DNA sequence: AAATATTTTTAGACTTATCTAAAAAATTAT
DNA sequence: ATAATTTTTTAGATAAGTCTAAAAATATTT
């Protein structure tokens, strides 16, 4: 069977994929609707269509999950999205908060040769500008051993490796606060009152709110 | 007024633009239908819509032409198409007969920063891989002083600068015959019988049919 | 376990872009 | 200048994706 999916269908698969990854159980209609900024009734219609194409497993009222084929397609779209993000930042002078919208369009361009050619041109990058791993041509991900910064304890050291929220507002905040991927940090203090954290980043002491710390991924240094 | 056109609408504008350029008069419904491989009735519907948006001038039964805005959009899409073709050939190892289909998708991605960034990344190329001029960011074209190879007379010398037909089949023929853009040629003989031409290309004598010579653009050497 | 609230699905409508078949206009031929 | 042909438009239908409002199923309270 040949799969020439519409952009809309691809976006549904992507949404289901990423919601499934965090929930690890069938995804509800409402969650998908919220993610795609549409109505639950529209989601039900589309899910039925995807189920017919055997891209999702669907039981009425019980949510959806991806079939193997559906997952492969979703991962491939994510691969394209992230490769384009790398291209935009590295070669076209985009800031990391500007790439998402454009990558949302580029990810739907269909050409194996384009995707794999871009991958090679970029020298097979393993992470996108937000620290998310890029699936290889067979759809294999690097499974990262990461945690969220807010879960660190006092005196623990780690490296910032990614962002959970990649909204433009959050990324701009990080730029202004000079918090970049790859930098080493140490937790100096945790405030019980509001769960804010005092960090040591490159010699500087910085206080960040829980809002921030819970949206930063870190990789703990082996001690 | 904001212009967020669908890919389909953009394709109509492109088709009308290029048909108008050769005919230099309002374009007929049938011609557009043929170009876009659709039906005349569909074209009528779409034209009405574009006329309402003031992108085309339309008089029933008399054909369509582009308004200034419509032309600007068409040229901008062509700009994107050709820039992407350059990128694909130069950086991703595409052959010149492979780029069209992918560029047809990439040309609809909407981001000023992307287009202008790509232009700069490519160092502001003036021609695409088929020899077609690339409009600059303001939509200005280089007007080339070119003729079609078949119109040359015996002993005239010129340089091959572009192709009229950019179908994969034609481009592959040129590759096999070692006819590349930029090479100098001389007309040795014209056969009255079938209008074939005997050319001198880089020391080699090559005979080409009218089919071929009428699809190659040349720039005549000043003598 | 009933009652209430929430979530999900269905039914019917709307939009965009397309099609076929028939009608209307324009063009060409006689 | 009338007839025949071709082109273009209209009318009505279809498919994809969306929506609102109502109905059905599930989940939560009491």
How is this structure best described in words?
Two copies of one chain form a homodimer. With 223 residues, chain A is of the alpha+beta class. Among the domains of chain A are: 7-66, Winged helix-like DNA-binding domain superfamily/Winged helix DNA-binding domain (Arc Repressor Mutant, subunit A), CATH 1.10.10.10; 147-220, Roll (SH3 type barrels), CATH 2.30.30.90. Chain A has helices spanning 7-23, 29-35, 40-52, 68-91, 99-106, 112-121, 168-176, 210-213; strands at 56-59, 63-66, 147-148, 157-163, 184-190, 197-201, 204-208, 216-220. In chain A, the strands form two sheets. The first copy, chain A, has a six-stranded antiparallel β-sheet with strand order 3-8-4-5-6-7. A two-stranded antiparallel ribbon of chain A has the order 1-2. In chain A, strand 5 and strand 6 form a beta hairpin. In chain A, helix 1 crosses helix 4 and helix 4 packs across helix 5 (99-106). The longest helix of chain A has 24 residues, at 68-91. The mean pLDDT of chain A is 95. Chain A binds a DNA duplex (30 and 30 nucleotides) through residues 6, 8, 28-30, 38-46, 49, 60-62.
């Amino acid at each position: 069977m040949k799969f020439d999916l519409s952009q809309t269908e691809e976006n549904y698969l992507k949404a289901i994929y990423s919601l499934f990854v965090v929930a690890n159980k069938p995804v509800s209609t409402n969650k998908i609707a919220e993610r795609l900024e549409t109505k639950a009734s529209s989601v039900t219609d589309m899910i039925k269509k995807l189920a017919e194409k055997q891209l999702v497993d669907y039981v009425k009222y019980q949510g959806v999950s991806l079939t193997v084929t559906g997952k492969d397609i979703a991962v491939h779209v994510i691969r394209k999205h992230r490769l384009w993000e790398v291209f935009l930042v590295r070669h076209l002078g985009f800031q990391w908060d500007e790439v998402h919208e454009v990558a949302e369009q580029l990810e739907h361009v269909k050409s194996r040769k384009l995707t794999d050619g871009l991958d090679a041109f970029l020298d097979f990058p393993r992470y996108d500008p937000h620290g998310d791993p890029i699936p290889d041509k067979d759809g294999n991900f690097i499974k990262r051993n990461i945690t969220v910064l807010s879960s660190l304890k006092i005196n623990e050291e780690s490296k910032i490796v990614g962002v959970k929220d990649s909204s433009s507002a959050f990324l701009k905040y990080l730029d202004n606060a000079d918090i970049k991927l790859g930098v080493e940090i140490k937790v100096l203090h945790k405030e019980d009152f509001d769960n804010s954290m005092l960090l040591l980043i490159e010699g500087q002491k910085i206080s960040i709110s829980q809002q921030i710390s819970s949206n930063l991924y870190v990789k703990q240094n082996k001690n």
